# Entry
Amino acid sequence: MSFIKKPSVHHPKLPKNKLGLTRRDYEGALSTLCAGYGHDSVSSAIIEACFNLSIPAHKLAKLSGIGCSSKTPTYFLNKSHGFNSVHGRMPSVATGANLANRDLYYLGVSGDGDTASIGLGQFCHVIRRRLNMLYIVDNNGTYGLTKGQFSATNDKNSKSKKGEDNPFESIDLAALAIQLGAGFVARSFSGDKDQLIPLMTAALSYKGFAFIDIVSPCVTFNNHTQSTKSYEYFRDHNEALGYLDFIPEKEEITIEYEEGTSKEVQIHDGSKMILHKLDKSHNPYSRTNSLKVLNETQEDGKIVTGVIYLDKNEADLHDVINSNKKPLNTLKENDLCPGSKGLEYVNDNFR
Amino acid sequence: MTKVNDFVVKFANVNGSGSASANLMFAKSIFRMGIPVTPKNIFPSNIQGLPTWFEVRISKDGYAARREGIDCFITLNPQTYQTDMKEILSGGYLIYDNTMPRNFSRKDINYIGIPMASICADHYDDPRQRQLFKNIVCLGALAVLVKIDLKIIENLIKEDFEKKPKLIPPNIKALHLGRDYALENLDRNLNISLKKIRTTKKKILIQGNEAAGLGCVYGGATVAGWYPITPSTSLVEAFQKYVNIFRVNDSGEVSAGIVQAEDEMASVGMAIGANWNGARAFTATSGPGISLMSEFLGLAYFAEIPLVLFNIQRGGPSTGMPTRTQQSDILSCAYASHGDTKHVLLFPSDPKECFEMAAQSFDLAEILQTPIIVMSDLDIGMNDWVTDPLHWDDDNKFQRGKVLKKKDLDDLVNWGRYLDVDGDGIPYRTLPGAHETKGSYFTRGTSHDAFAGYTEDGRINADNMMRITKKFKKSLKFLPKSIRKKAKKDTSVGLIYFGSTSVAVDEANDILEDQGYAVDLLRIRSFPFGRGISTFIDDHEHVIVMEQNRDAQMRSLLINELNKNGSNIYSILNFDGSPVTADFIVKSFLDLLKKNQFNIKSLKKKNQQRE
# Structure
């Protein structure tokens, strides 16, 4: 934890993106989380993904609930509006925000405490509604801010720091997301930048509900030897389904891929996702198959990572309700108020 | 003596038997005869099988409150007719289906049997039709008995079934079957009768929720998150209906986002998220929803996010009486959420005001950057009221409050989200996406400084809380003022009321005036309370607050907020779930006098002296 104000001087030779911005332009305040916390790596990945996509920071809204993870939006994209809402209710606030302005990017950052307990209902329903957003869970299996209680994603065989048993089944948020209709579902690890950044870049570009479950160890309360959400455990049990390359719109694919191991998926904005499969049997376009993979790897004590499920038919809530293509928050009196003439019609109907 | 255009008809039916549309046609046909009419739908929290009533007061003088004592009771529910009978005035009528024999105990009322079931059995084959058309047969006979112009009902049938024209002939046939039976078999010299007048010619007959939903369209609402709950649901349904009528462009795109949420917490969350992002957004609920939304209300209050929330109040506490009316959420709404919170409340008294206040609430929410709770109730929301036509001034412009645009931000150096620049406690806000480099901030429910930064400095937090208090004091100039009605004579008694009881209070006041009592009236239309309310209390030796809850919540709020000594502030409380009657208010008033809590002599003497 640090109270030092971040210096704002930039090195003149920092690389710039299409908007002429450097990575520093996407940063936020200094993190006040515990040193070494996985969440800070996630924040860095977000900065990297937004930089890569040349997203104007003010065109992205970052939303969160309550908890360590929900604090992190302060630590990236300080030119973006942020909304730290109430516990577990970020999805509804994001839904309203998105309904008001369909033209922004929406990034929701939550944790396992925020999403898998009080927020489980809202998590389920925001998925069903296909809200166009990227929903990230920094998943550490514990309530860090209240000092180490089990969360609902803590594996049954994973003990607390004090050695207590966890008697209850864990909730697999990725499996839930697939079941409920999320379009893009991935799992990754806060310590694996190479995997995480392309996933995040692709997920931000995806139109519809994109979910990334990020195992992000809590260094203070759940990084011990008997935890299944520790750095060490993850590295020993990671089963990567594959890797993803993201090729932004109009960029050429310059690398050649081995026949039969990769799939190219073009998304709505012209960008491409290249899925490199390590496990050739994995078919990420089938919900049934994706759920099977999650179940099987879990039974084997493995943590599956990469793109688990991808729905190539992108669609979002605005498509479903057929709302005006112009953001609703830009409409004026003339567009919205039927005036006295409209009332003549209404009054006549009640005579 | 025949009562012309001044009596009460009540229907007792079984829920789900198709009685509602026939009963409404009865009321509406009287309205179309130019006669003021007040229908009250007294329905169970049930879809089929439980008792339901429909009470129609007809008053040539335009009294729109309920009146007890039924002149004509159509008892079509075998479960309830023995108790229903007790409500009939001596000399009144009980109309029943005499297909099956019935026993009646009262000797002082008239019994009119109409074989509705057997008429339907003779003329319709389909069992469902036999059931449904009993109501229309009854309506046809009733129209003859009380002299409704049958053509009006025929037109109503045609309008109702405009989209299912096949149903028009069998309905009209049923209506005529009833008419013919009455003409051939019944004594038509009743002591109640209708006669065309022109009193309601320019009026409309509309429900409060319908008007409020329309008001949201006029107020420019584009986002609604909602969760079904009686009696608020029809408000959002009306919004959806008028959005479909007025807000669909040539490509079929809709200029609104209406989402049925998973619960009340999500519905208010959506409305808050949308308002935060610059759309006008609302949600509607009832008591249980208010409890659930409280946490979010605190956030919107503290983070200063505009929000419009309709509370269509019903009977509480807990699940309470979901289909009955009360005004029992006054305190829970005024102070909803933990910590020091306070919310702006509006109190519409009829559907017309529901329309106006709904539209106005969006301006208020954005001007004040805080939740506005519109406190309607089931009685206004779900019953049809005769009101003046809805009116809209085309010069009205949305007042969007202090929102900084890109060009404003270009020139700004030291913007702080919660800085009190103008000294009115209302800060400037920015919307996501407004400017590349300026105006972004972090909205939070944690303690924050004037620049929206997190702070644990208690003094800074206290300053911020005091600024919000200042904002509330300054809010008064924007809020609808209370309405004062002076008695014809000077008096030491003042009566305060609000919302749906207004019609009963007006009528009670006329009765009291006839009896020689002078009472000054004051109708509250918003909270925080303006100075006019405080002065009104000070001006009167005795103040009575009329409200529909057990605990005299408005009285408590007045005493607390205006720092009054409550010893001379009395209550008339009606909380049985039925809209209050003028008789109840008069009786309660006289009881208060009798108990000698008032300085009755001075009041009477004053009146006598002046008479």
Remarks:
- Chain B has a mean pLDDT of 96.
